[in-house]
Design a protein that fits this description.
Immunoglobulin-like; mainly beta; 6-stranded antiparallel beta sheet; 3 domains
Length: 350
């Protein structure tokens, strides 16, 4: 009779609670790497002088076998197989193993105690479980975090499989998968996609952070704005311009606190310009001050240039003062440096 035993591993259990695995950000992405196997689980129980019972057990990467004998005659065989052994387990991570138990041969009904012992060994809180060939169950465990959460042999963990009749104790030569701790690679620096940038009010700018080295364990960064009234930044580095001014956007690595910045200038563009007079009349030699009004009032660049269409009739200074030169008509034009918006005033000189 064939039994399917699914062994799945969860994060929070009685023996291994989540609180046992609180790590620094730098530890979070360390992992346990499968480096090989050890042992073969071979064991022979000598025949009892009174009962004539004996057994043999063996375990390998392909499965485990428990044979039971009575006076030298095979009367019972339990076989176990498993799959999905992980080659890498991240610290604090749960993983799944599927095992199949089968009573392959059964002559005497009272011989039903071949067992598979599964043990995640080496953690401060080791877990193990014994499964009968005619039973099913759940083995709950989470990989410990680094050398701080393992026993004195603090660079290795062992996923052990033993097959033994009677009490489910580990034999002297268990078959085990050996996992070695690979510590996280520390962050050395971070850079931002732009060191300086300009952005118009209401527009957005996407910044990206590059963490070095490329194989650093924890590449997470946080983003911060030096003045959220001028510009805000999202957790993904998206800058939103709010009002004119300069602001510093900073990316900080979660691991190591490395920083990089981008100086952002937020610009409010000019939308229009007008003059205080559309037309004026001047006597020769007299002056008049034209005054420009730029919209919006908080435009970032309010610089303008002035020009006369006929300087022989009327001139205009860099500040908008018009002077009559001789009789005739001229047009004074003011133009914004930002956006090239313009306004005109007709000047009649008498």
């Amino acid at each position: 009779m064939k039994r399917i035993i699914t062994i799945f591993l969860i994060t929070a259990i009685v023996a291994l609670t989540q609180s046992n695995f609180v790590a620094s950000a730098a530890q979070t992405n360390g992992y346990w790497k499968l480096t090989g196997t050890q042992g073969n689980g071979e064991y022979t129980s000598p025949a009892s002088a009174t009962s004539g019972w004996s057994s043999t057990e063996s375990v390998s990467g392909s499965g485990a076998t428990n044979n039971q004998f009575l006076n030298g005659e095979l009367i019972h065989t339990d076989k176990f197989t498993w799959t999905n052994i992980p080659d890498k387990v991240f610290a604090g991570e749960a993983f799944s193993i599927t095992a199949t138990g089968e009573v392959a041969f059964h002559k005497e009904p009272w011989f039903t105690k071949g067992h598979l012992l599964i043990q995640f060994y080496g953690a401060l809180f080791p877990q193990n479980m014994t499964i009968n060939g005619k039973e099913s169950g759940t083995f709950n465990v989470t990989a410990p975090i680094g050398n701080t959460d393992v026993k004195s042999d603090n660079h290795y963990l062992y996923l052990r499989f033993s097959c033994k009749y009677g009490g489910a104790t580990n034999n002297d030569n268990p078959f085990q998968y050996v996992y070695e701790w690979v510590p996280p690679i520390a962050v050395t620096s971070v850079s931002v996609s732009e060191s300086t940038a300009s952005i118009i009010v209401g527009k957005t700018l996407q910044l990206t952070a590059t963490v070095s080295p490329v194989d650093a364990a924890n590449k997470a960064v946080t983003w911060d704005s030096s003045n959220i009234k001028i510009a805000t930044v999202s957790s993904a580095g998206k800058v939103i311009a709010k009002s004119p001014g300069s602001v510093t956007i900073t990316a900080t690595t979660v691991s190591g606190g490395k920083k990089a910045t981008c100086k952002v200038t937020v610009i409010q563009p000019v939308t229009s310009i007008k003059l205080n007079k559309n037309s004026i009349t001047l006597l020769k030699g007299k002056t008049f001050k034209l005054i420009q009004t730029i919209n919006p009032s908080n435009a970032s660049n309010k610089k303008v240039t002035w020009k006369s269409s006929n300087k022989a009739i009327a001139t205009v200074s860099s500040t908008g003062t018009v002077r009559g030169i001789k009789k005739g008509t001229s047009y004074i034009t003011v133009t914004t440096v930002d956006g090239k918006k313009s306004a005109k005033c007709k000047v009649v000189v008498k």
